[in-house]
Amino acid sequence: MDTLIRTEFAVETTYLNTASCGLLPRRAVTAVTSLAERIAAGRNEGSGSFASVEAARASFARLANVPADRVAIGGSVTAHTAVIAASLPTGSEVLVPEGDFSSVVMPFARRRDLKLRQVPLADLAGAVRPDTALVSFSTVQSADGRTADLGAVREAAAAHGARTLVDATQSMGWLPWSAADWDYTVVGGFKYLLCPRGTSFLTVAEEAQDALVPAQAGWYAAADQEASVYGPGGELAPDARRFDVPPAFLQYHAAEQSLALLEEVGTEAVHAHVTALAARLRSGLAGLGHAVVPGTSAIVALPGLAHRGPELAAAGVVHSARAGNLRLSCHLYNSTADVDRVLDVLSV
C-alpha cells in the first residue's frame, strides 16, 4: 500500500481535510487530462466513454457489496435524495438526526406535506415508531465524525416497517459496510472515494425500487437508450439504472480510476490505516488538554477550537471548521508525520 500511495499521490501540504474533499490520484488526473485533450482536438467521438461510466458503477458496487444493477449514477447526493422525497405519500413521517448534513434532510423539509421529526443521533433507533415511513441519516456525521449505531437503527426500522435512507459519503472508502442492508443509500464521490465533485451513487434495494418515482428519467434511464433519444422514449431500465441521470464524462473517467485504486488497496486496509492515525491524533490532542469528540471515526473533531484554524493554516495544515468544531480527517495518503505536525502546532 505504501508504494501505491507514493506512486499515486504527491501531496504538498499536511492535508487533513478529506471530509471536505478527497485528493485525486495521479491515474484519475491522467484520465481527465487525456479525455479533455481528445475532446479539444476533435479526436473523441462524443464527450466520453460509456464503458468508463459502467466500470465506475461496477467498481462502486463491489465496494458497496451490492450487484451493479442496484446502483444508479448521478451528480449529487441532494438530487438522489430529492427523488426519494418526491416519492413519499402525503403525510409520511421522516425521522432524521439533529444537525445531520442537509442533503439528507432538506429535500424532505421542503415538502410541506411531510412530517419531519428530528431527534439526537444517539436516540435515533429508539425514536423509530410505527408511523415512521423513512429513517434518513448519515453513517458518519459531517460536523464532528460521530458514528451512527447502524445495527440498532436497522433493527428498529425493520421492527416498525420503516424504510431506510443512509448517506455514506463520510464513510464509504474507509469504513467496511454493505449497502445491501438498507433500502436506499447515497454517496457523494468527492470525499473518501477520491472522485471529482459531480460523481454520486444511489443504491436501491430490489424490494424498494417500485416505491420510487423516476422523476429525473431521461434517455439515459431507458432500457433501450438509442431508441429513447427523442420523444417520450420507451420503457425504463428494469433495475436501478432507471434512476440514472446522464453522466458528466470527465468526472466519471476519473471515478473509474479512483474507485479502481480503492479496490486495489481494499477497504479493510484503508480502515486499519486511517483509524490508527485518528486514534493517535485523538490521544495526542487529549494529552495536550484539548477536548475531542470520542469515537473511532476517521474524522477527528475538537469542539470550540475552530479559532485555532489560522495557526494550522499558517503551518501548512489543510483542515476545516464545521459547527464550531475544528475538524481534521484522515485518509490513506496521510501518515504519522501529518498527525505529529498537528500536535506540534496545537501544543503551543
Characterise the protein shown here.
There is one protein chain. With 348 residues, the chain is an alpha/beta fold. It is built from eleven helices and twelve strands. The strands form three sheets. The chain has a seven-stranded mixed beta sheet with strand order 2-8-7-6-5-3-4, sandwiched between helices. α7 (150-160) links the parallel β5 and β6 (163-167).
Supply the key terms.
348 residues, alpha/beta, seven-stranded mixed beta sheet, 35% helix, 15% strand, globular
What's this entry about, in short?
The chain is of the alpha/beta class and 348 residues long. The chain is 35% helix and 15% strand.
Which helices and strands occur, and which strands form pairs?
Layout: H1 2-8, E1 14-15, H2 26-40, H3 50-64, E2 71-74, H4 77-87, E3 93-97, H5 106-109, E4 115-119, H6 124-127, E5 132-138, H7 150-160, E6 163-167, E7 184-188, E8 200-204, H8 249-265, H9 267-287, E9 299-303, H10 309-314, E10 317-318, E11 320-322, E12 325-329, H11 336-346
Parallel strand pairs: 1-10, 3-4, 3-5, 5-6, 6-7
Antiparallel strand pairs: 2-8, 7-8, 9-12, 11-12
